[in-house]
Amino acid sequence: MAMPALIENALANALTLVIDLDPALRDIVVLSLRISLTAVVVASLIALPLGAALALWHFPGRGLIVVALNALMGLPPVVAGLTVYLLLSRAGPFGELGLLFTPAAMVIAQVVLVLPIIAALTRQQIEALWAEYGEQLTSFGHGRLRAIPTLLWDARFGLITVILAGFGRASAEVGAVLIVGGNIDGVTRVMTTAIALETNKGNLALALGLGIVLLTLVALVNAAAYLIGESARRRLG
């Protein structure tokens, strides 16, 4: 079969898998979303107050933490995966928990990747708001600690965009989850690792089907971020 015909046939089969909600494809997508959403929620619960605290308080070592967070925004996924692998392996400090090659390990790896992004960008937004409204909030009797919920709420549109960016990073990641998850069928196989595996196996239909779903997901996340940003600009304008 000629190459164009082979690709065309694989694409047609991929669309059929997506439209018919093929069970194998559906299970992989559901697991991917469950892991990525859990990671983003956990990372956000830690990163939002952390970023706000770094914006409002100055203490010895703060600059080092800020620099570290900014640097970790570009952390290579394979490095994050290797670090979590070493921590969760039998010889590691948390080996007794038995988390390696489970969805929990994949969540931890994605939290490591996403948390610095959300924390660093949150710090920037809260720092700008505090510079603008800090004196007013203080005059109302809001100390820095009490001001955190107010500032986070006021920055909610920008922070939702930040969280969506974190979700995009998590859902499109392959290196870290492959190392700590093992790409086990029905257990830790997510969209990105399945695409790599199925392509190597020559199962282009499933690989393309998952690619279509992943691209659609990324497009929806970016569209949501754009619409939220536009809504925030109209509100401020």
Task: Furnish the topology, listing elements before pairings.
Blueprint (H helix, E strand, L loop, with lengths): L2 H17 L3 H34 L5 H11 L4 H12 L14 H37 L4 H11 L1 H16 L3 H7 L9 H11 L2 H33 L1
Helix pairs in contact: 1-10, 2-5, 2-6, 2-7, 3-5, 4-5, 4-8, 5-6, 5-7, 5-8, 7-10, 9-10
Question: What about the largest sheet?
Answer: none
Mean pLDDT level: 89
Give the topology string: H per helix, E per strand.
Answer: HHHHHHHHHH
- Distance from N terminus to C terminus (CA atoms, Å) equals 58 Å
CATH architectural category: Orthogonal Bundle
Report on the structure:
The chain has a single domain, classed as MetI-like fold (Orthogonal Bundle). 80% of the residues lie in helices and 0% in strands. It has helices at 3-19, 23-56, 62-72, 77-88, 103-139, 144-154, 156-171, 175-181, 191-201, 204-236. The longest helix has 37 residues, at 103-139. It starts with a helix and ends with a helix. The mean pLDDT is 89.
